[in-house]
Amino acid sequence: MTHVTEPSEKTLFRNVSILDSTGAEPYPGDVLVENDRIVAVGEVDESRAEGARVIEGNGRTLMSGLCDAHTHFSWNNSADLDGLGTMPVEEHLLFCLESARTYIDSGYTMCLGAASAKDRLDVVCRDAINSGRFPGPRYLANGPEIAVTGGALTHSITKFADGPEGMRKAVRELVALGVDQIKLSMTGEEITGTQRAEDTYFSDDEVAAAVSEAHRRGKRVCAHARSAESVKMCVRHGVDVIYHASFTDEEGMDMLEANKDWVWVAPGLNWLVATLYEAEAFGFPQEAAEAVGYKKELDIAVAGLREMHRRGVRILPGGDYGFAWTPHGTYARDLQHFVELLGFTPMEAILSATALGGELMMRGDELGKVQSGYLADLILVDGDPLADITVLQDQDKLHYIMKDGRFHKEQGDAPAPPPDQDELVTSGTQHVVERRP
Amino acid sequence: MTLLVCSTCPRYDRHRSGHFGRALRRAIAEDPRDVPVRSVACLGGCPDHGVVALDGPGMARVRFTRLEPVDARAVITAAQAHAASPTGDPQAWPVPPEIADRLSSVTTKRAPQPARSHQA
To answer: By its UniProt entry, which SUPFAM superfamilies does this protein fall under (chain A) (predicted)?
Structure first.
């Protein structure tokens, strides 16, 4: 038998500040990537790096790509909930592919789908990304969110189910579509005007049935769960990822703490902040937002999340982006909220978005860290995110973006072009890789 | 203090040229006053482009809309006043009159309630 050795592709990031997401302070060194994996970190043996393409870091920060724990490719920057469902499927798929690209353009290489506005949008995008046809982050796809009769936030994007058997059937149908996880829409949302955030629409039996059926098929379950009761239901029945958890009460807090080895909380903070303060241009002024309860919810949620953080509950950034006032591309604002509102240190916020992100993607041993053996999902940042977490919001500062050892974006060190080229779509020497393998 | 400049304004320009941000940054660079600028992908004031916001750790984020590059001078003045104020809240600093009517949102970074304020 003849053994054929595949030629390897090597990239050496030389003289970078390595933010490795182990919790260690950044340190200077080199990072060698071979094919799709990181193979050496810190001091790289010269012979091992022979033939590598060299990226001169000049002290820039090399860190893991980021994770968004609450992603909706199909939220189409609409100014209202109904707009999520009215876009025809053909246009909607194109929008989703653009969202996927925007995520990776923004340094996000891991995303957890938190519901799809139509049956197969998420699944098709995930598969297209995985096959290399379109750029995007690693993605765990979802289907339409499941709601009970009378409990939908938006009818046109909802899969209705009632009772334990109805839940089992709905889960089975979504599994057949190819989803990676199931979304339960358990509570209301104040912006609807009719569905209160503190109301819980699911019964215990329904949650238990949905979770057991999903887990039986190896699928995750996540839930829109703002009310105190819904959070406790989630923990009681094993919902893996709790979204929002705004009104968690003392009992729920104790339950989260007692189960913190498996449960995740992803509050989607930017939705609350921006809906309260920044949506007036789209017909939802601050007075209206306060009147329906968003100010109260933000206050209570921030206090509760701080308490969760103190107790060691795993809290993840990811902000429900994709409305007109929370548009795609602004994802890293969540990290700023974690620091400024929740009291995370910048390091803690970054660990949540990277190392914990890898665990959330169920690949904690190969995603989310700059460590030998990990997949090479990396961003080279012109700045120090520990000194200023907002640098991650500036795509111009993300000079290189790599996923699976391949560059999605490369930005040379040459000066930007003359400033009179307003017609150009992109500026500087940025090159976004269009061709896929 | 950071002056956030939208890099995607005008959002509904089908060419996605982002020309507002580039033009404003050029105008800011021509001003002798030194202001840290951060480009961000949208500040959510899109129907009324161009958009900037003043922000800083623990400071209120103050957003202005319907701006043109010619407003750069007033924007810098506002940024410096915002930075010099204790909270960033525009009631605590003089908003330049040229752009005062284009202040479109104030995002308070409210202090959390006492530790046990979540629902009992």
So the answer is: Composite domain of metallo-dependent hydrolases, Metallo-dependent hydrolases
